[in-house]
Specification:
Elements: E1 9-21, E2 31-43, E3 47-51, H1 58-65, E4 73-78, E5 81-82, H2 83-90, H3 92-98, E6 99-102, H4 116-126, H5 132-145, H6 151-156, H7 164-176, E7 182-186, H8 194-211, E8 214-219, H9 222-228, E9 231-236, E10 239-245, H10 246-251, H11 256-263, E11 314-317, E12 320-322
Parallel strand pairs: 3-8, 3-9, 6-7, 7-8
Antiparallel strand pairs: 1-2, 1-4, 4-5, 9-10, 10-12, 11-12
The protein binds adenosine-5'-diphosphate (ADP) and magnesium ion.
Magnesium ion (MG) is lined by residues 58-59, 186.
Length: 327
C-alpha cells in the first residue's frame, strides 16, 4: 500500500565530518574537527533549524552543503543521488541553482555599485529562467513576492538606499529568482533590527508553505527556531546533541545543553533571565581523536563515561533524538 503523507526528502546528510588544518604540519592532531558525525534529512517544504552558539559548526556545515568547502567524510545525498553523482549528471551550475544560500549580512552580500534591478535580473539571465524581453516583468514580480513595494521604485534603488530588512528581502528575491529547492539561511535575521525580524521569518515561512521551498535555518536563537521551523537540531562544538520535532525539542528538552539554551530565553511576563547553572568548563577545541562528550566540561550531570566516549544516538520519542549518556 502506498504510504500517505510521507515527506519527500530533498537533502540528506549522513555522518558528515569537516576538519580544518591547524598550523603547518599534516599530522592527525594538527586538524580541528569543526563538524563531527552530523546527520539529518531535509524534507520538501519543511524548515530545519540548526541551533547553537558561535563556533558550533553551523556555518561550516552550510558551506560544505553549498560546496564552498569540501567535506572530510560522510555522505551528502541530493534528490536521491550522492552529491558527486548529481553534479556529474546535472552540472555544478544546476546544483548551485537548486541550493541557494542567504547570509547574515545582507549589505555585504549585495554589490553597492549595482541597482536592485541588476541583482535580480542577473541570476534570471545566467540561469536562463527568462529571456531579455520578459526579464523586467519577472524582476518586478519577485520584488512584490518578497514584499518590496512599489516594485518599480525599489528596482531602481541601490543597496545603501534600503533598510537592513529591505536588503535582506532583496537577497531572498535574488535566491528565489533561480527557483531553488533549498535555501540555506545562515543567521538571516541576526543583524537586523528586532522590529523587522519577524517580517523576514514570516516571509520565509510563506515561501516554505506556499512554494514548497525547504529551509535550513541557522540561528543561535532557539526561540526563533521554535517559531519558524518544524524540526530543530541543537549543535554543540560540531556535534548534534538533540534533535527532532521542534515542539518536542523546545518543550520537553532532554539534553542539558538544550535546557541551558532554553533557560536563557526571556519569557513573557517574567523579569530577567532564568539561566540554568552550567559549569564554567571550557568549550573544547575538538580534534579528530578527541574522546568523550563535547559538553562534559560544562555539564552539571557529567559522569565518568562522559569524558571517555561520545554518546550514541538515543531515540526518546517519535521524532525526538538525543546524544547523552545520562538519560
Ligand atoms: N576556514 C576555516 N579555517 C579554519 N577553521 C575554521 C574555518 N571556518 C570555521 N572554522 C572553525 O570551525 C569552527 C566552527 O565555525 P563556524 O562553522 O563558523 O561556527 P558557527 O557558524 O556555528 O558560529 C570554529 O572553531 C571556527 O574557528
Ligand atoms: Mg556562523
Amino acid at each position: 500500500m502506498e504510504k500517505l503523507n510521507t515527506p519527500e526528502v530533498v537533502l540528506s546528510v549522513n555522518h558528515l565530518v569537516k576538519d580544518f588544518p591547524v598550523g603547518q604540519s599534516t599530522s592527525k592532531n594538527s586538524y580541528m574537527r569543526a563538524v563531527n558525525d552530523v546527520s539529518f534529512d531535509l524534507c520538501k517544504g519543511e524548515a530545519l533549524a540548526i541551533v547553537g552558539e558561535s563556533g558550533s559548526g553551523k556555518s561550516t556545515g552550510a558551506r560544505v552543503l553549498t560546496r564552498i568547502y569540501d567535506k572530510t567524510d560522510g555522505e551528502i545525498i541530493f534528490k536521491g543521488k550522492p552529491l558527486d553523482e548529481f553534479i556529474k549528471d546535472n552540472g555544478t551550475l544546476e546544483y548551485a541553482r537548486q541550493v541557494q544560500m542567504i547570509f547574515q549580512d545582507p549589505f555585504g552580500s549585495l554589490n553597492p555599485v549595482h541597482s536592485i534591478y541588476h541583482h535580480i535580473a542577473r541570476p534570471l539571465l545566467i540561469h536562463k529562467r527568462t529571456d531579455k524581453s520578459n526579464v523586467e516583468k519577472m524582476v518586478l514580480e519577485l520584488l512584490e513576492l518578497v514584499g518590496l513595494f512599489p516594485a518599480v521604485e525599489t528596482s531602481q534603488k541601490f543597496p545603501h538606499e534600503l533598510s537592513g530588512g529591505q536588503r535582506q528581502r532583496v537577497a531572498i528575491a535574488r535566491a528565489l529568482a533561480v527557483d531553488p529547492e533549498v535555501i540555506l539561511a545562515d543567521e538571516p535575521i541576526s543583524m537586523l533590527d528586532v522590529s523587522v525580524r519577524l517580517g523576514i521569518l514570516n516571509l520565509m515561512a510563506d515561501l516554505k508553505d506556499k512554494h514548497g521551498i525547504s529551509f535550513m535555518y541557522i540561528t543561535h536563537d532557539i526561540a526563533t527556531a521554535r517559531y519558524f521551523a518544524e524540526k530543530t537540531a541543537v549543535m554543540y562544538v560540531g556535534h548534534m546533541v538533540e534533535w527532532g520535532n521542534s515542539d518536542k525539542v523546545t518543550q520537553t528538552p532532554q539534553h542539558p545543553y538544550t535546557k541551558l539554551l532554553l533557560s536563557a530565553v526571556p519569557e513573557a511576563g517574567k523579569s530577567g533571565r532564568r539561566e540554568l547553572g552550567a559549569k564554567k568548563g571550557e568549550i573544547p577545541m575538538w580534534r579528530p581523536d578527541t574522546k568523550g562528550c563535547p559538553f562534559a566540561a560544562r555539564c552539571p550531570n557529567a559522569i565518568d563515561i562522559c569524558n571517555d566516549s561520545f554518546p550514541a544516538v538515543n531515540q526518546i520519542a517519535e521524532d525526538h533524538f538525543i546524544r547523552c549518556h545520562n538519560i
